[in-house]
């Protein structure tokens, strides 16, 4: 028996309940961990509300990221033993492998022995943000030294991860944020430039920053009307990678900019990296090396207790956080 967070119908954070459930032993190729910390993601709020790409089966668990200690291993698991401190690459299905529990089971290939200097709270904040940013910027866009990259929703965990990854490869990260409230924090986090979208003209500022070369890469989680000025500031042959849809407004197709500059507009899900063993192995190597050399440092916005999961989800949906929200079981 273990305590787990579940919900029995779609709705707001108040739908989440901590219940005691039976947990079967790990099956072949699975690993069961005693969870010490959880990393929260917007995908979990979307599943709870019924607007995620996956459909909940009630009563449904949820959660994509965890760190803890291996409790048991299934048949054919090699390289991992009970007692190992590990963190979890987000599974393709959080309904099948939910993380919000004191005892949780995951496919062995998604279980990582993270650098020992990371605490459990930090380790739980690693994989979703860095895999998402790495997959978009390095794996797909081929970001290189000197490239200008515009990053929207820059104060999110993925946005901050993208800033760090851009700096690690020698690119020039330009952070976009709605208000000036987080401007200095973004500079302190490594942004070379900050554009305040509600107070400045996006296109004019990006043109001034990128000059005649233009913005080669845009990493966007928002969509909406900003598509027009973003693409107008892009370099010929540039690529815009869309991984979210935070704007409630329609997203126009910037036909003139796409045609005249031969731009690439590409949708992206982190699953593209996770389901490909070769690409995932390359991503793990990049991220683990960055964690070890200090170039990648997860930014934690706030830590909640497991018993306060409802309040943690309310904070998640407030859009006021700077970095990752973590829940601790200790």
TrEMBL record:
Query: Which residue intervals define the domain Enoyl reductase (ER) in the entry?
Result: 11-327
Q: Name one GO molecular function term.
A: oxidoreductase activity, acting on NAD(P)H
> Which UniProt keywords are listed?
NADP, Oxidoreductase
Q: Which SUPFAM superfamilies match?
A: GroES-like, NAD(P)-binding Rossmann-fold domains
In Swiss-Prot or TrEMBL terms, this protein is called: NADPH:quinone reductase-like Zn-dependent oxidoreductase
Source organism (scientific name) = Bradyrhizobium sacchari
């Amino acid at each position: 028996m273990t305590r787990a967070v579940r919900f029995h119908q779609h709705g707001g954070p108040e739908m989440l309940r901590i219940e005691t459930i039976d947990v079967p032993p790990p099956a072949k190729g699975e690993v069961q961990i005693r969870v010490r910390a959880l990393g929260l993601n917007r995908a979990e709020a979307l599943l709870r509300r019924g607007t995620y790409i996956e459909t909940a089966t009630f009563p449904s668990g949820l959660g994509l990221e965890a760190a803890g200690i291996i409790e048991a291993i299934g048949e054919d698991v090699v390289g991992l033993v009970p007692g190992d401190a590990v963190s979890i690459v987000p599974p393709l299905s959080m309904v099948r492998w939910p993380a919000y529990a004191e005892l949780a089971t995951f496919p062995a290939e998604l279980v990582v022995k993270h650098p020992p200097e990371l605490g459990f709270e930090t380790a739980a904040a690693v994989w979703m943000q860095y895999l998402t940013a790495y997959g978009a910027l390095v794996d797909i866009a081929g970001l290189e030294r000197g490239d200008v990259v515009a990053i929207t929703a820059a104060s999110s965990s993925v946005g901050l991860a993208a800033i760090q990854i851009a700096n690690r490869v020698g690119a020039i990260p330009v952070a976009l944020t709605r208000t000036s409230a987080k401007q200095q924090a973004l500079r302190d986090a490594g942004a070379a430039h900050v554009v305040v979208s509600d107070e400045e003209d996006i296109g004019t500022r990006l043109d001034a920053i990128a000059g005649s070369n233009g913005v080669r890469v845009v990493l966007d989680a928002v969509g909406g009307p900003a598509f027009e000025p973003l693409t107008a500031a892009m370099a010929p042959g540039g690529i815009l990678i869309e991984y979210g849809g935070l704007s409630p407004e329609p997203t126009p197709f910037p036909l003139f900019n796409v045609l005249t500059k031969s731009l690439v507009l590409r949708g992206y899900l982190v699953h593209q990296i996770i389901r490909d063993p070769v690409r995932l192995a390359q991503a793990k190597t990049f991220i683990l090396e960055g964690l070890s050399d200090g170039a990648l440092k997860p930014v934690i916005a706030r830590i909640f207790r497991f018993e306060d999961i409802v309040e943690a989800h309310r904070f998640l949906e407030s859009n006021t956080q700077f970095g990752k929200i973590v829940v601790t079981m200790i």
